[in-house]
Amino acid sequence: MKHQLRSIKTLPAPLRILSFLLILLLVWLPVVIPVKLLIRNNQNLVTILAMGWLFILFIVFVQLTGKLIYQQSKPYQEVGLIWNQQNGKEIFQGLIIGWLITFSLFMLQALLGWLNWQENSLPWWQLIAEGALTGIGVGIAEEAVFRGWLLNELEQDYSLTVSLWANSLIFAIAHFLKPLDIIIETLPAFPGLVMLGLSLGLARHKNQGRLGLSIGLHGGLVWGYYIVDVGDLITYNNTVSPAITGIYGNPIAGIMGWLFLLALILWLILKENRDQPI
Asked: Which pLDDT belongs to residue 277?
């Protein structure tokens, strides 16, 4: 049995990834379907419970596959989930950078006269607390999956460049598992998601495989945008095309957001090269 399990690691990366996801799905569905049937009047709660259960299973499966298939002594460390002071420091740095990028983007557009700031619709403490929970939760979950487990699997078979691009494309596609009409409407966000995926992958690579900076950057971007969006802090005055500011108000679905993400990618590449020993 152990020999058969360990033979899985000799499969090509696409088959290993699909096998992992299929088994995960088969264990996830028998719990989620009854929950969905029992809680019909609160879809938000169903979504939270379903995603929470999925992430718990994912964390368990990472440990099991790491131990049984790859014979790793510390599977979580292999995917970048390192619980130490350095990783905590990098999470904090990433949160600050994510915040700065988000608010700098909107402040620049305000200075250019493309949008107006307005009074927030919710108390500040509520926006900050809810944004923190959302941003950090999304950052931990998505980075553990995409820049942790998935990027590791890809790098076992492909070069870093191929792995980063494949990872970023899969990351973007995963955010487009929606009805066709919504996919078409939100398609301008696809390049932004690919660029975001690239930047987060580079952030992990820059820090010797630790996920702290990636989690922080992702969490900070989501946290900052949550405050602006849910708090109704801005209104666009339509002086320029939404293609520049972001289709449907989504900053990564417009040229300005792409430029900021490109600047982040270039900074990470330059920093990576500067940190390399001569």
From this structure: 46
Q: Which two tokens stand for residue 109?
A: 């557009």
Distance CA 168, CA 150 (A): 10
d(CA 239, CA 17): 46
Give the separation between CA 97 and CA 92, rounded to whole angstroms.
9
The confidence score (pLDDT) of residue 120 equals 87
Q: Which residue has the tokens 């108390």?
A: 123
> CB neighbours of 190 closer than 8 A, spacing ≥ 6?
172, 176
Q: What integer pLDDT is reported at residue 160 of this predicted model?
A: 94
What global pTM score does this model have? Answer: 0.92
| pLDDT averaged per 10 residues, the chain (length 278) | 67 93 94 87 86 94 91 91 91 96 97 94 91 95 97 95 97 91 89 97 92 97 96 92 92 96 94 57
Give the integer Cα–Cα distance in Å for 223 and 135.
Answer: 4
* Per-residue three-class SS string for the chain: CHHHHHHHHHCCHHHHHHHHHHHHHHHHHHHHHHHHHHCCCCHHHHHHHHHHHHHHHHHHHHHHHHHHCCCCCCHHHHCCCCCCHHHHHHHHHHHHHHHHHHHHHHHHHHHCCCEEECCCCCCHHHHHHHHHHHHHHHHHHHHHHHHHHHHHHHHCCCCHHHHHHHHHHHHHHHCCCCCHHHHHHCCCHHHHHHHHHHHHHHHHHHCCCCCHHHHHHHHHHHHHHHHHHHCCCEEECCCCCHHHHCHHHCHHHCHHHHHHHHHHHHHHHHHHHHHCCC
Q: What pLDDT, on the 0 to 100 scale, is given for residue 4?
A: 60
